[in-house]
Amino acid sequence: MIHSLFLVNASGDIFLEKHWKSVVSRSVCDYFFEAQERATEPENVPPVIPTPHHYLISVLRHRIYFVAVIQSEVPPLFVIEFLHRVVDTFQDYFGVCTEAAIKDNVVVVYELLEEMLDNGFPLATESNILKELIKPPTILRTMVNTITGSTNVGEQLPTGQLSVVPWRRTGVKYTNNEAYFDVVEEIDAIIDKSGSTITAEIQGVIDACVKLTGMPDLTLSFMNPRLLDDVSFHPCVRFKRWEAERILSFIPPDGNFRLLSYHVSSQNLVAIPVYVKHNISFREGSSQGRFDLTLGPKQTMGKAVEAVLVSSQLPRGVLNANLNASQGTYTFDPVTKMLTWDVGKINPQKLPSLKGTMSLQAGASKPDENPTINIQFKTQQMAISGLKVNRLDMYGEKYKPFKGIKYMTKAGKFQVRT
Amino acid sequence: MPYLGSEDAVRELRRALSNPNVQSDQLRYRNTVLKAIRAMSQGVDVSDLFSEMVKACATVDIVQKKLVYVFLCSYATLNPELSLLVINTLRKDCQDPNPMVRSLALRNMTNLRLPSLVEYVEQPLAAGLRDRAACVRRVAVLGWAKLHNLQPDAEIDAAVVNELYGLLRDPDPVVMVNCLRALEEILKKEGGVAINKPITHHLLNRLKESDVWGQCEVLRILQRYHPQSEDELFDILSLLDASLVSPHPPVMAATLGLFLGLCSGLPAVSLAALERVRGPLLAACGSTSRETRFTALCHIQLLLRSLPGLMGAHYKRFFCGYAEPAYIKQRKMQVLVELVNDENVAMLLDELKGYCTDVNPETAQAAISAIGRIGRSYSDRCLEILTGLLGLKQEHITSAVVQTMCDLVWVCPQCSDTVCSALEGCEEMLQDSQGRQALLWLLAAYGERVSSAPYTLEGFIDRVRSEASLGVKMELLTTTMRLFLCRPSETQDMLGRLLHYCIEEEMDMCVRDQALLYYRLLHCGIEETHKVLHGQRSDPSLGVLIGRPAEPINQWAYSFNTLEPLRQAGVETEPASRGSPEHVTFDPKPNTDLSDTLNCSQIEKLGTPISGQLLPFFFAEPLKFHQVGWGASVHSHFQISPEMFNRVQVRALAGPLKDIHRVVPKPLLCYLGCVLRFVVLLEDEPSPQSEVQSALEHVFIQDVSVHCCIHLSLNPD
């Protein structure tokens, strides 16, 4: 199925390769490099590139291309999903998935790839099982390893593979039994000139960190489960109960895992937590343009909007921007024409604004399109969809665990057209 | 990769590895091996250490074993003789009480990939199939597939195959799926695993136990099964219903693929299944992974061919974000075009208009041509936008707009007035050859209405010497000829100059031939010339976008969940389903994205109503056709004197015709093609000569070189 995997960085160097069947020469990547050269932006490299004898299916994450070489017809979604799983696993193991991290941990990377695929077929992809086969490197362990010479390879047979519940190993023990759930929602929206919403969509996840002894059986119920549109569960969740009672019932994996992810689409009304008042204009014949931007909180249920970062790609003709920020700092890169304004927290009493003029290239005509403004923000203690966890119960074990839940809303692809 | 100081490093490593002191100290030994592996991954050639590493393999330490195996598998092919030494250790490990060691040894034994070792590997593999640990069985099962790949010609051991079939009932789901995978590979020549009723039901019942990957595999293989009764079919379908809305896109896609395969005789059920996957597909379109989004979009395009209304209410989900990659934007626009209706047209056009000024020229072009396609149904609004875009005076935008107008006029002749008035003053902005070709075509078709047409042409003719593009030169010749027919006094002089240049000085044979043809044509008299050159100016039958008949699902079901919908080509969904065969002028997009597996089951469709007749269709160079050696028989078929065929090229289509499901008609070069180049597709074999002749008579002109391309029999069955 998957013949080989090449890891290519943004400058077009192969820094890792792994072959599961026969060795495929590196030259197959030339087709990929060609496409990479043709694409103006790194993201523009098409994900599927046909070559005379192979198909190259690639995934770009963290500025690294994961290029899978395919020799026969395959379901494309399958390969793409698998490549993402590989990246997720690396991230899980090394904290970050950068070229440097992969090069530092090259031995672990090879071991992981060897376990994840056999003869091109996915074998063990569940992070819990992998972690028993190959221990993830930590700073402490790296140090201990260099002194004692031990490595990251698990020395026992992973029990999980034989246990009844494939995602949880038996005999887990903790002194503090705790279960934390983070409800994180990302809001993707396009707001048009006049401030009305063109599209808005919420992508939410519930990430869990469960450290409980034994084989606990948890149930989690929501105040308003009907909100969730397209829900995707961790395999541990009993789907029948969700369909019948809208209750999440599961035996959790040990440690960190993603319990579910969901969408709340534009069918339901999506609340927009910030608004932008803008006035960006260029006049014909003048070498000056006006720039005026004010941010304010909208539907936030009284919670503060924090970590606000505004960025905008100004038109090519703009030479410089002379602006005045009432709060935070702004930078303008005259080469990339990228304007970034780090606002921080929005104070509803005194709305942050950025005003001033832009100087244009002399003689250049008026830019024909106005810039788009991208906004990032965070709101703690609130899930913008209104999702609320009702209660969490545990069965099957005697002790009383500590339970915690946290809500957060972030901006995903949030953009305002001007 | 050359590595500075690598020789020293290797020498040092070898010394350390063979040092008895190191060997006796477990930790130091393991560390040294680790160093060697690290050096290997940095590109140092450490193959010289092979014999030392073989020795290091004989250890009780699993970790060290694992490292050594990594080394051995990479260098075994370079040292086949020495690898023989490893086999003994590996075989001993296969008897180890620890199942992990057994599976590790087995996996690496098969990963050495040396045909010479096969005889030593077979016995432990056979034992592995009967191991009591599931992880060993998993490896052993796949091991047989690897072994088979090593010697693809070797005879298949029936006992092993039987045993693998037996293991389909293994309690471990991964072993079950691996058996399927292994059998698929081993029995490739016989068409893969044999799927019968008990196996199907067994697999379906255990589908839930396996992981996502396993489910995809099982669903894919089950496509080969044909249920014996309708009851059985519906039992299977209801079992699969839950996976159809699976949150995992691969599983969802695989299930739908199986559904479509099973229900090929029940279109209503298939349509219901499509409705059902709408939710999951839309969710995949909003996935965080760009690649998944892209793939989902491509598949939605397929679905829309049969169910145009499927996504109607969700059109806003296909609006492009600013930071999305170009390939997603372009696909989204293609989907948007399909979703247009009376209510949303204003909103959609507004949105598309915004994309026309995208920084990426390809995206801008895609947006403009999307507007043009909507223009077939809503021509006024779209023309307004298009003419507005000309005002921006941007090279790539102007070129795209002119090309789009050219397409638009071809299907909507009522637009021609607006287009003609918009054309004035465009030629300075046009730099690329496609844009200029389109402009020339428009001038040829509507030259009498564009007052500045002769001046524009004069400019082109003055620069013809420095013209690099063949297409532009050919188009220029035809345009000048046609303009000469309607405005002789203004163009006579320049036509003379152009023909003189093309015949006397031009190096390219095609241009020269074309010019000669026109020259001789003019000798035949103006009447004759007019008859030949007066091609079609438009083909409204290609028609409007909305209210178009939906294609049956079977047209595309075979390509669902494969790589085909993701290919660049076939982007335009153009149903060329009407029109009399003589007038169907096919011409692929001369510029870009036509793939080599040009598709055209449309042709077959066209062929059916006129069964027994032949079906000429015309093409230009960019189509990739293979040449076949068929020259001699052509003459006898046509019974025309050989000199007619100055440069006969007989060609057949590159792919089997059944794979070819779309040909994009485009006005560019088309009537030029009428005269010079065409492929003849014959519907029935029995009586080709007479029919070919009679049909071609009105096209053939005496004393002209004709490129005749003949492909017999569309439909062998």
Automatic annotation (TrEMBL), chain A:
SUPFAM superfamilies referenced in this protein's UniProt entry, alphabetically: Second domain of Mu2 adaptin subunit (ap50) of ap2 adaptor (SSF49447), SNARE-like (SSF64356)
Ranges where the MHD domain occurs: 176-417
Record-level GO cellular component terms: clathrin adaptor complex; cytoplasmic vesicle membrane; Golgi apparatus
Biological processes annotated in GO: intracellular protein transport; vesicle-mediated transport
InterPro entries recorded: Adaptor_comp_med_subunit, AP2_Mu_C_sf, AP_mu_sigma_su, Clathrin_mu, Clathrin_mu_CS, Longin-like_dom_sf, MHD
Membrane topology recorded in Swiss-Prot or TrEMBL: Peripheral membrane protein
Compartmental location: Golgi apparatus; Cytoplasmic vesicle membrane
Principal location listed in the UniProt entry: Golgi
Family note: Belongs to the adaptor complexes medium subunit family.
Name this protein carries in UniProt: AP-3 complex subunit mu-2
UniProtKB/TrEMBL annotation, chain B:
Membrane topology value: Peripheral membrane protein
UniProt-annotated location(s): Endomembrane system
One Gene Ontology cellular component annotation held by this UniProt entry: endomembrane system
GO biological process, one term: intracellular protein transport
Alphabetical list of InterPro entries matching this protein: AP_beta, ARM-like, ARM-type_fold, Clathrin/coatomer_adapt-like_N
Main location per the UniProt record: membrane
Residue ranges of domain Clathrin/coatomer adaptor adaptin-like N-terminal in the record: 12-522
UniProt keywords, alphabetically: Membrane, Protein transport, Transport
Family label: Belongs to the adaptor complexes large subunit family.
PANTHER family per UniProt: ADAPTOR COMPLEX SUBUNIT BETA FAMILY MEMBER (PTHR11134)
Protein name: Adaptor related protein complex 4 subunit beta 1
